[in-house]
Amino acid sequence: MLCSRVFGIILSCVSLISILISLLTDYWLVNFGTNLFHSGLWQICTKNVCQTIAGSGFIGATRGLVIFSTALLLFGMVSAGLSLNNLSVGRITASLLAAMLKFLAAIFLLVGMSVYTGETVSSVTNGSFNYQWSYYLCWLAVFTLILSGLCNFVAHQTSPTPGYEAV
């Protein structure tokens, strides 16, 4: 179904933009207490002075998982674009491949966000730290990826199966 393919591509674009914005901005965690600062996956900024965060530990794991998720999403978007031409190899259609890649991207992004949340939740509940819009934008990307994968899976289910009847 063309409608679900197009809607899947639109949701993929929303996911990609959300992931890229959240990955590149530094408003994941903000401290509103006496030591005002905001931090992301790459740097911590205090009073307009920013310092690079070392990539070890949970920050490095979160970075790697989000970047790998973004790569899977890009491959899924290419596959979703190819599905507009009803491309298939045997019983595997481009829509099914796009759905699988987007579900994998959502899983890796979910794991990355869970790692970050698991390591910072004690600071948020016990201190003056708060999650900010970059963090929530990345969570939004998880849900739009799942919806996009579902749209591609519906497109696969409604596409005609190739076989001898099509010849």
UniProtKB/TrEMBL annotation:
Membrane-spanning ranges: 7-30, 65-84, 96-113, 133-155
Broad class of where this protein is predominantly found: membrane
InterPro entries: PMP-22/EMP/MP20-like (IPR050579), PMP22/EMP/MP20/Claudin (IPR004031)
Gene: LOC108697059
Pfam families associated with the record: PMP22_Claudin (PF00822)
Subcellular location: Membrane
Membrane topology: Multi-pass membrane protein
Entry keywords, A to Z: Membrane, Transmembrane, Transmembrane helix
Tree of life domain: Eukaryota
Native organism: Xenopus laevis (African clawed frog)
GO cellular component term of the entry, any: plasma membrane
The keyword ATP-binding is assigned to this record: no
Protein name (record): Lens fiber membrane intrinsic protein
